[in-house]
Amino acid sequence: MAFKNPVFCALDTPDAGEALKMATQLRGHVGGLKLGLEFFMANGAVGYKPIAELGLPLFLDVKLHDIPNTVAGAVRSLLPLRPNFITIHTSGGPAMMRAAADAAATAGAGRPKLLGVTVLTSLDASDLTAVGQSSDVAAHVARLAKLAQSSGLDGVICSPAEVALLRAACGPDFILMVPGIRPSWAAANDQKRVMTPREAMTAGATHLVVGRPITGAADPVEAAQRLAAEIAA
Ligand code: C5P
């Protein structure tokens, strides 16, 4: 089977020109691109479209969270952009996730896949207690991932530390999109618990999100190629 690159490169910039330039360079060297709130708030659909026209799979990381009717409407509003993945907060509850999944399904075979955000990795046990949730982070993550699965979502975003747990909890077909990835030759930056691409794939990841090791490299294309080769080896 041909190698299918699992790496989605995070273009974390509000600058549409810079993002388009990087996207154009990386075409053919990454599996897809991730555009998040920083980009989308600044540029919206107008900035998104030229990048989408490059034809790479796109992951729109907008972390939707509202009442079911509003989230379903937001998903419908994103359908014309034809993103491959959209994120929504699982803590919005089963009715919200189901409404989002039903809205996505109206796009038919080319529908976007919905990925749940469980517990933000910026939250620790004391933060969870402060907002009135269980302080057992791993148990809470697993609970929300299983709820996402039974509510019609296609997968979740998870930290490297959670991959093995969620692969076991959610079975072989659930998408696990994993940030916090650092090849041995890249700086960790502000990421605290990192895994190499190979380690994360071996643990059960289906897709990897990699930003600065590619976008901050002196030669981003070379860095992306090196990553892909490392995973394929
Ligand atoms: O540059 P770096 O590889 O650290 O970028 C990782 C990307 O994944 C960023 O867009 C970041 O917002 C995102 N992300 C993360 N950790 C999470 C969820 C998302 O690093 N828990």
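^ cytidine-5'-monophosphate complex. The radius of gyration is 17 Å. The first strand starts at residue 7 and ends at 10.
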